[in-house]
Each structure stands twice: as structure tokens, then as C-alpha cells.
Amino acid sequence: MSISGCFVQDCPRVPWSLSHLSPRRERDTDTSKPREIRATMSNVRCLPRIRVRNPLVELDGDEQARVIWHQIKKQLIEPYLDLNIVYFDLGLPVRDATNDGVTLDAARAVQQHRAAVKAATITPDEARVQEFNLKRMYPSPNGTLRNILNGTVFREPILVNNVPRLVPGWQKPIVIARHGFGDQYKAQDVRVPPASRVELCILTADGKEIERREVHRFAAGEHGGGVALAMFNTDESIRNFGKSCFEFALKRKLPMYLSTKNTILKAYDGRWRDIFQELYDRDYKERFAQASLGYEHRLIDDMVAQALKSAGGFLWACKNYDGDVQSDIVAQGYGSLGLMSSVLLTPDGNTLLAEAAHGTVTRHYRLHQQGKETSTNSVASIVAWARGLAHRATLDETPDVLQFAEALERSCIEVIQGGKMTKDLSIAVLGPELGCKRENYLTTEEFIDAVQEQLETHLVSIGQKSPQQRI
Ligand SMILES: NC(=O)c1ccc[n+]([C@@H]2O[C@H](COP(=O)([O-])OP(=O)(O)OC[C@H]3O[C@@H](n4cnc5c(N)ncnc54)[C@H](O)[C@@H]3O)[C@@H](O)[C@H]2O)c1
């Protein structure tokens, strides 16, 4: 089900000059014109495209995330890049039609090409099975991709100066790395009847008992019963998690902390502390020192206190459940879910899949389906494209592609700092009453137009500096 190939139309080449662009800007701000006409103008007046040497894998998604994704690609990517996209549609109808085979094909393509971007997808529950008349309840595509790539998810806020933070001290990003294997994900949890005993027993592969420990004796009587839980992790998975974290910290030039509760779970959480320390001492200490970075293990309670009081600016490696909780706290703390990016990185640091941390924004999609105006924040999706391309550029050693990716990300931030933003941010900045007033926010389309305009000013100055790097 994969479609691969160059999706970029040939655009007429035009000389780089600000004056050449100015008429387009005037027309683009005229929102009274139908959207299709304004988009066509943009394509006709496109700039010379930058060649991307190797393919980028694109995984399409569902609902409003899909709507904004297509608009971003059409306005902010295709006109400027000569890019070979290896495309997979992970929208729920195609996952159903292929019995989820498309997700496996997509994961293999990501492994092959090593740089990928993804739009948010629906993870079906019972209601979605009915809504889409699905053959079965497919697993989360993100879970499937993560398991096949054996990667770690890093969530990072996109900082914008004029968006107030719930934690005002957080001036720099806190990146949360969540270990997404074992622990609660693969636990066995049971109800235990009264007057019974729970034991933990370890057997060899052929069934010989190695160790048996009593966990608890439950009392007799109506209230004597309770619950029990058994969970596990593997040295290999913890080690791969550690490698991904150290690689990401070096990539983003951030000091790193691992949090556990090893004072209580001496063997279990102690294993994380020991494996991370071994890895650090053996493979990363020198590289961290060269980059003037440090690594430390902290108790989870100390770490939470330190994080709240800090100015941010570090990578926090979390066990599975801690990461689940902390990534939501951090997302809210920085102002909006629409400003959270997410990156999946393999332990060797070579394969990267970038996406927005938010979901498919179903409520906005219902409005879109009714032909109503929407104001969906596309920043995290645009930044996903920028970070996927930046990784492609690093692998290919193509500085012009890297410059484009950086300009794209910077353009989003500058537009918001210039006072143009979607409703979620307008509410965060101005409060619910003023923020909801139509004159104080842009629609989904107006915001992408504004980013395009800003991007073109950057591309013009980059093009003037290094025209020989363009085709
Ligand atoms: N990475 C992924 O693919 C991913 C992640 C989370 C949820 N999902 C899927 O998304 C669907 C909807 O889930 P949900 O409602 O829990 O999460 P959601 O992130 O789509 O929405 C949560 C809330 O945040 C708001 N919001 C989120 N992103 C926004 C944006 N860019 N601009 C403005 N407002 C925004 C929404 O309006 C909503 O109130 C579900 O089917 C779920 O399976 C996918």
C-alpha cells in the first residue's frame, strides 16, 4: 500500500528578490478571496526549490490533523523543496482496508529511510469501531511504530515568548523521554480473594524453581481480599532507552537526568540507575564532557521539586508511568498542547520520526465537516515537518535543507510573537473572554498563510546569501 515518488510539481523559477514577493503578500492577506485562489497564487509564484538528496517518509493521519497536514504540505513544503516523499496513508479507512498492513509497511520504510514525519492518527476504541465500521479494534499506530523501531518518544515544548506559561519560571524547554515498554504496559494485575496468599515465583525455561517469595497473605472475611500486580522490564529495553536518551541529549545539547524511586524499589528501579550509569561511564561521559553537558540520576520526588523550581533546559528520562504523567504536566505547564512536539528516536540516534504531540482534534474536525470556520493550531505539525527535514539534512549533510527547516520552525514562532495566532493561544495570551473575540485570532488557514509569508522572507535572505545551493 505504499506510494512512493516525487510529489513536487515543477514550479517556474523566479529570481530571488523581495520586491518580487511583495504583490503576493498584499493579495494573500486579502482573506475575502476564496482560499483555493489564494493557494494557487502561492504556487504560481513559488521560489526556486531546494533539493533534498534522499527521501522523507510521510505518514498521513486522521480528521483535523489530516486537514492541517495537507495544507502545510501544499503551502509550506511543496513550493520550496524538491523532495522525494515516500507516502503512507495511516488514516483509519486505509488501516482497516489493509488489516493494518499499511502501518507495518510504513514502519519498514521508516527503518529504511531513517527520516520520517507523521500526522496524528485515531487509536480506535469501541465507539470508533462503530463509527468507521471497522473489522477490528486496531492497536495504536504509534505503539506499533515504537515497538518495531524500538525507539523512545521525546516530548518537547515549542517556546514562544508571548504565550504565558502555567509555570512562569520555565524559560527553556523541558524534554520528557518516556520509556514506553514493559512496566504498566505489560503488567498482569489481578483481584485477590480473601483468605489467600500471593507469591512471586521465578522458574527456569524448563520449569525448575529458582526463587519463590511471598508477596502478601490476604486476611479472611468480607474485606480481606485486595489486588495484586506483577510487572517486568528487560535489561535490553532499559539499555536501548538509555542509549536513545543520551543520543537525544547530545543532539539537543541538553543536560540529562534519570528519575527513579530506587530507595523503595531497590532491585527494580535500581536496575535503571545502574544500566544508565554503566552506559554513561562507558560510552557517553567523554562526549558529554566535550559538549559541556552532565548526567545525573535523581529520586523522582527530588526531580519533580527541582523541575518545578528550575528554568527548564534539560532532558528528563522517565520510567513508563512517570513519563505518562510528567509529559502531560509539562504540556500544560508550557501553555498549550498545540505547542508540544514529539519525536521518536532509535537507540543509535540515526532514525527519527517527528510528529505533533496532540491528537486528531476531533471537535475541530466536526466543525470543518459542517463547512464551519476552524482555528486549529498547526504549529506542532509544522515543527514536525521541520524536525523531520532537519534530521534528513543532518544525515545527508545538506546545510541548505537544514537552513530551510530552521527557517520554517522559526517562522511559526515569529508569527505568534508578532501577535498572529490561533484561538487556543489567543485565549492563553488574552484570557477566555478577549481571546475568543474573532478579531483577536486567526483561522486555521489564515495562520498557515501568515507562516508562509514569514517563511518566504527568510528564504529570500537565505537565497540571496547562497543561490548556488539551489536548483
Ligand atoms: N499522536 C497521535 O496520533 C495521537 C495522540 C493523542 C490522541 N490521538 C487520537 O486523537 C483523537 C482525539 O483525541 P483527544 O481529543 O483525546 O486529543 P486531542 O489532542 O485531539 O485533543 C485534546 C484537546 O486539546 C485541544 N487541541 C489539541 N490539539 C489542538 C490544536 N492543535 N489546536 C487547538 N486545540 C487543540 C482539542 O480541541 C481538545 O480539547 C483520538 O481518536 C485519539 O486516539 C492521537
Automatic annotation (TrEMBL):
Site, as annotated: Critical for catalysis: 185, 261
Keyword Metal-binding: yes
Catalysed reactions, semicolon-separated: D-threo-isocitrate + NADP(+) = 2-oxoglutarate + CO2 + NADPH
UniProt EC number: 1.1.1.42
PROSITE patterns per UniProt: IDH_IMDH
Keyword NADP: yes
InterPro entries, sorted: IsoCit/isopropylmalate_DH_CS, Isocitrate_DH_NADP, IsoPropMal-DH-like_dom
Gene3D superfamilies tied to this protein: Isopropylmalate Dehydrogenase (3.40.718.10)
Residues the record lists as binding NADP(+): 121-123, 128, 309, 359-364, 377
Pfam family, one: Iso_dh
Positions bound to Mn(2+): 301, 324
Binding site for D-threo-isocitrate: 123, 140-146, 155, 178
Domain Isopropylmalate dehydrogenase-like span(s) in chain numbering: 55-451
Keywords, ordered alphabetically: Magnesium, Manganese, Metal-binding, NADP, Oxidoreductase, Tricarboxylic acid cycle
Cofactor note: Binds 1 Mg(2+) or Mn(2+) ion per subunit.
Any GO BP annotation: tricarboxylic acid cycle
An example Gene Ontology molecular-function term: isocitrate dehydrogenase (NADP+) activity
Family: Belongs to the isocitrate and isopropylmalate dehydrogenases family.
Protein name (database record): Isocitrate dehydrogenase [NADP]
